[in-house]
Structure prediction request, 321 residues.
Amino acid sequence: MPTTFLRALSAGVLLTATANASFAAECIAPANPGGGWDFTCRQIGKIMYDIGAVEKPVQVTNMAGGGGGLAYAHVVNERSSDEELIIAASSATSTRLAQNAYAGLTADQVRFVGAIGADPGVIVVGKDSPFQSLGDMVEAIKADPGSVAFAGGSATGGFDHLKVLMILQRAGFTDITKVKYIGVDGGADAITQTVGGFTQGMTGDMSEVVGFVKAGDVRILATLTEERVPGFDDIPTAKEQGFDVVAVNWRGLYVPKDVSDDTFNLWADKLQQVADSDEWKAAMEANGLAPFTKVGGDFQSYVDGVVAEIRDLSKEIGVIQ
Prediction:
């Protein structure tokens, strides 16, 4: 690991809670206050304390830098056996690890303890689109790959792009480099492209399109979730339509690699307690998250599978070597 990356700790770390003896555990949010990782640490930490899963308040430390890489390097190199440490993570974490965005660090250098909520992935079309199902769209692409263009809020090779490619691979379509994808600056710009008819589809997250759906400007062909999203029960999942893809921007935690199995299981149990609480259900509703609970070994296996698939796809489209 380059020493310059680690030296950035002194400049890149913003402590938003002062450590003292009253704090029994610490949650690192790998970004500045106000974002998704900060939300994960603060909400989960607060609820753990409120419901009695931990005896003392959880300290939150903001450690922005490298798209989460600074915090990841800090945990791997400095605190690999700290049993009182949890770190916020999301789908961006697994995507960046798969694409070697953390300067050679790998997913097996930490342990992913669980996810308990997610912003559902969606495939969206304009209100007048001829596609009435995800199957209709896939068949059109298989017949003429250039006939359907997608807009998404991530760059080429980012998670929005990969959602479409995973669906097509499940459908047996292998020439994925022919799929048209336009990466724009965020989900709002992406959905505007589709509303305006400049692209035939949009790939993104539920929170980015809810307003357009309610206004009748677009239709969601599929949610990329295990089950239908509460409040949008009329929208089928991709799995229901024969495409076994779950692609959500999950909210969860990892812990250092060298903690004991007992410690890993203890954090998994605490996270499960949060997932089962009324407080977390209220927090999800207030912040537009859908249920997505995978905790302990089940979640570790899920992340391992996602990282492997994203790595293969990224190689195939030339994002990584």
